[in-house]
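To illustrate the input format used throughout this study, we show a single complete record. The first block contains the structure-token representation of the backbone; no residue identities are included at this stage. The design step must infer an amino acid for every position from geometry alone.
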């Protein structure tokens, strides 16, 4: 008879220690991501947690709704509903914003070097690819504020990798300034801004691309659709992700592949749903840069 997996006492113990210090925690499953919602909470059928952006009535005792499940209640952490999760957990995460903290997640050596030259020293924690810089104070979370840099605070989670070293500093304006207001609500009568005379991708600008025109156009079209689908928020982050994905696809091509033209189309898609053009261009440039750093 197969025995159930034992509870990861080290993860649960770390979670309880963090909770005792007032830091809300949650378990992470394989892939170091939150556990999926239970059937009752799938697609927010339960209405969502009371602490989510759109407050809901969910009282599910399970580890549902990702960061919103984070708790500092030892009774919940050791409850039967969380026991199955601890048996499968591969790591512990915490909700920085609720603990009054902000994590600057530096995901590349270049990002770490930038932080050391730009940001005030604070508590640092080594990660597998870079460092977490932890500041005292909470703010809005945002991914890809520049190449290899994410901000994790309110409505986000960070993996617990130990206490780190160094004295924790107060959240500086230099970090807050990284989060530029990305989205504006487009007028129902007109687009916030538009681009004229922009380049478009076709085979004539990709004479060194090893991919077929159909392959490139399909990927680009899907990416543009993703950006345009975010009419309320997130279009800038999508522009970054699409640019990074498309650039990575062409990393081994002899070139040219017409990435500049692709970038113009991504920028135009983001602008069409209300992203300020300077922010859209920066997001696309950072996406291309991140892809080239990873390919190096």
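Output of the design step:
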């Amino acid at each position: 008879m197969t025995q159930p997996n034992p509870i990861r006492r080290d993860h649960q113990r770390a979670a309880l220690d963090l909770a005792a210090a007032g830091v809300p925690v949650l378990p992470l499953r394989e892939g170091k991501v939150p556990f999926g919602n239970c059937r009752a909470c799938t697609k927010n059928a339960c209405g969502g947690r009371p602490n989510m952006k759109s407050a809901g009535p969910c009282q599910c005792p399970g580890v549902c709704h990702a960061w919103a499940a984070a708790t500092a209640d030892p009774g919940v952490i050791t409850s039967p509903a969380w026991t199955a999760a601890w048996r499968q957990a591969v790591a512990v995460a915490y909700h920085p914003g609720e603990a009054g903290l902000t994590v600057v997640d530096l995901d590349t050596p270049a990002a770490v070097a930038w932080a050391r030259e730009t940001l005030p020293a604070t508590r640092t924690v080594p990660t597998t690819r870079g460092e977490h810089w932890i500041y005292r104070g909470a703010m809005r979370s945002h991914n890809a504020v520049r190449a290899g840099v994410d901000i994790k605070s309110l409505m986000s989670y960070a993996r617990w990798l130990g206490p780190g070293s160094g004295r924790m500093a107060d959240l500086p304006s230099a970090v807050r300034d990284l989060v530029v207001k990305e989205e504006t609500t487009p007028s129902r009568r007109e687009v916030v801004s538009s681009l004229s005379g922009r380049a478009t991708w076709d085979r004539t600008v990709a004479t060194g691309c090893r991919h077929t025109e159909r392959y490139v156009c399909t990927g680009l079209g899907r990416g543009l659709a993703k950006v345009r689908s975010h009419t309320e928020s997130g279009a800038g982050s999508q522009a970054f992700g699409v640019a990074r994905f498309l650039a990575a696809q062409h990393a081994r091509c002899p070139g040219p592949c017409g990435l500049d033209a692709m970038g113009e189309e991504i920028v135009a898609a983001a602008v069409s749903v209300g992203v300020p053009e300077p922010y859209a261009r920066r997001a696309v440039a950072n996406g291309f840069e991140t892809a080239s750093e990873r390919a190096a």
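Structural context for interpreting the output: The chain has a mean pLDDT of 84. Strands lie at 25-29, 33-34, 91-94, 101-106, 123-126, 131-136, 142-146, 149-152, 158-159, 169-170.
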